[in-house]
TrEMBL record:
Pfam families: EAL, HDOD
Residue span(s) of domain HDOD: 197-387
Species: Paraburkholderia kururiensis
Full protein name: EAL domain-containing protein
Species lineage: Bacteria, Pseudomonadati, Pseudomonadota, Betaproteobacteria, Burkholderiales
PANTHER family xref list: CYCLIC DI-GMP PHOSPHODIESTERASE CDGJ, PTHR33525
Length: 417
């Protein structure tokens, strides 16, 4: 279950800043300190922005906190109930920083030691002030890991496994008593063993095939009647307050007419990713990632020249089906064949071809905070920019996290396996 997001920040320096101009009394150290203070202030301001809070969608936010951020008085504008500060393993630790941590801790701020791979002096100094320790599975000695984890657990610390990218990583950390896990294992195709296809999902696949053929209401009604679970969800969707019909929908045909094939299609696409376990949609990592990608693609393509409604619909499909093999297993190509996707959508997903393929690359790199790669692709999509992409990613995250409150998705529920 999804329990938190980590924000990956990038400080963009202005092309020219008068305060950095040479001064007879300036030293390189003073200029560096000024730049660090400006970066800290910008970072703190960003965390208080509505879009950032919205993207959390009720979850906790983990953020890298530099020394300059922690020492800045403005840091207290950041709500402690929403954000946890991560302390890097190379942060400078002295009496000033320790005193600041004590002050902030008294004001209910929480700290996590990030990227820990060994027991060193920095860890010893900061451990009393941290509620959790992130241990990087990719770089710690596997021989050292069991003892290290045991000692930290005995000290009453939450253990977070960082870099969980495989089933073996997850099982190792779980068996050692780790409390939380961070990594792409939970939302990418190699996690397919935990999400085996179920009968309801195949019913969803059949429904998607029918929807792609522009069906009549009678055809939709006949297909839906084959699975009472889908009928129940559609009735909930049609009767959600977002539609504002003013009366209760009581028949399946009326529900189809009230909802419309476009909304039914989008609802069906997202339901493909809903886990069979008792996990709410906002806590399901794969569904959240799929919904965020799809919404990002839809918003981003609107920023490109000559993007019409059909292109926006195609963009949403590219995002939502970009890792559908995580649900059905098998190859991505064979799954797309089964879904009868158009050539444009297939080429964008399989080969990153065309503008939709380039936008898919952008959102993939954003997920990894690979800013240099984002810069390169955005330059190819000019006037689309990295700044625009980052802003749209936040908007898409908010939409995905609150999906069951939107008119297009309200009524989404877990499909019982």
């Amino acid at each position: 279950m999804l329990c938190a997001f980590e924000f990956k920040n990038r400080i963009v320096a202005p092309e020219h800043d008068d305060s950095d101009s040479d001064d007879d009394d300036d030293t390189p150290e003073l200029r560096l300190a000024r730049r660090e203070r400006r970066a800290a202030a910008a970072f703190i301001e960003a965390l208080t922005h509505r879009d950032v809070r919205g993207a959390l969608a009720g979850h906790a936010g983990y953020v890298d906190a530099t020394r300059a951020v922690l020492l800045d008085e403005l840091v207290q504008r950041i709500p402690p109930e929403r954000f946890t500060f991560e302390l890097a393993p190379d942060i400078e630790v002295d009496s000033e920083l320790i005193a600041r941590l004590v002050t902030l801790h008294a004001r209910r701020y929480r700290f996590v030691l990030d990227g820990v791979t060994q027991a060193d002096e920095t860890l010893a100094k900061l451990l009393p002030y941290a509620e959790a320790v992130k241990i990087d599975l990719r770089h710690i000695s596997r021989a050292l890991l069991p003892k290290f984890a045991s000692v930290l657990k005995s000290a009453g610390k939450l253990l977070i496994a960082l870099g969980v990218d495989s089933q073996a990583d997850f099982e190792l950390a779980r068996d050692l008593g780790f409390d939380r896990f961070q990594g792409y294992f939970f939302a990418l195709p190699h996690a397919s063993s935990t999400r085996r296809p179920s009968a309801p999902r195949h019913a969803l696949l059949n429904l998607l095939k029918l929807l792609s053929a522009d069906p009549t209401v009678a055809q939709l009604e006949a297909e839906l009647k084959l699975n009472p679970v889908l009928v129940m969800h559609l009735m909930r969707l049609a009767n959600s307050s977002a539609f504002g019909l003013g009366h209760k929908v009581t028949t399946l045909r009326e529900a189809i007419n009230a909802t419309g094939t476009n909304r039914i299609a989008r609802w069906t696409q997202l339901l493909l990713y809903a886990d069979g376990r008792k996990v709410s949609l906002e806590d399901d990592p794969l569904l959240q990632l799929a919904a965020t990608r799809a919404r990002f693609m839809e918003l981003a393509v609107g920023q490109l020249p000559e993007a019409g409604r059909d292109v926006a619909d195609a963009a949403f499909l590219v995002g939502v089906f970009s890792f559908v093999d995580a649900v059905f297993g098998g190859t991505l190509e064979s799954t797309l064949d089964a879904l009868t996707m158009s050539r444009t959508i297939r080429e964008a997903i399989l080969h990153r071809a065309g503008p939709l393929g380039r936008l898919l690359t952008v959102v993939e790199q954003l997920e990894r905070a690979a800013w240099d790669e984002v810069d390169v692709v955005c330059a190819e999509l000019a006037p689309f920019t990295t700044s625009t992409a980052a802003a749209l990613a936040l908007a898409a995250g908010e939409w995905a996290g609150m999906a069951d409150h939107h008119a297009e998705a309200e009524g989404l529920e877990r499909i019982e396996d």
